Amino acid sequence: MARPRKRRRVCGLPNHKVFGPVNSNYGGESIILSVEEYEVIRLIDLEGLEQTECAERMDVARSTVQRMYSEAKRKVADSIVNGKMLRIEGGDYILCEIDRDKCIPCNRGGHRHRRGRG
After folding, report:
1. Could you tell me the sign of the dihedral formed by the alpha carbons of 19, 70, 82, 93, in that order?
2. What is the pLDDT, as a whole number, of residue 96?
3. Domain assignment of residue 27, yes or no
């Protein structure tokens, strides 16, 4: 039996979840970026964390962060270069609530968690 997948800690959901071509007649392929992949990009590229720091905040191994980051960058590049819709949805994560003063590992919320499957 395979080991159960460890949930990743995510400190907030994105405010905007769909990106893509401005053409209102778009009917092409969409790319799905999971909430965890979004969080990795946010932490590394926006907040400037190293992969090790990102792994600590998300409560996973550095190799997991590296794998998610590589996949997320590939998806974003495919969306930009090939003009595909990018949707942020789904995943298997633990969400820290928005009480940002109480979450010690990520400084973004208390530890009342909810399932984030979609």
Report:
1. negative
2. 78
3. yes
Q: By residue range, what is the domain housing residue 70?
A: 8-95
- Which residues are CB-neighbours of 52 under 8 A, at least 6 positions away? 62
Residue 110 resides in a domain? no
DSSP code of residue 4: P
CA distance 49 to 20: 27
Report the distance separating Cα 37 and Cα 87, nearest Å.
11
Give residue-wise pLDDT tens across range 73-95.
Answer: 999 999 999 889 999 999 888 88
- Total count of residues recorded for the chain: 118
In a domain, 38, yes or no: yes
Here the CATH number for the domain that contains residue 19 is: 1.10.10
Decide if 51 contacts 65 (C-beta within 8 A).
Answer: yes
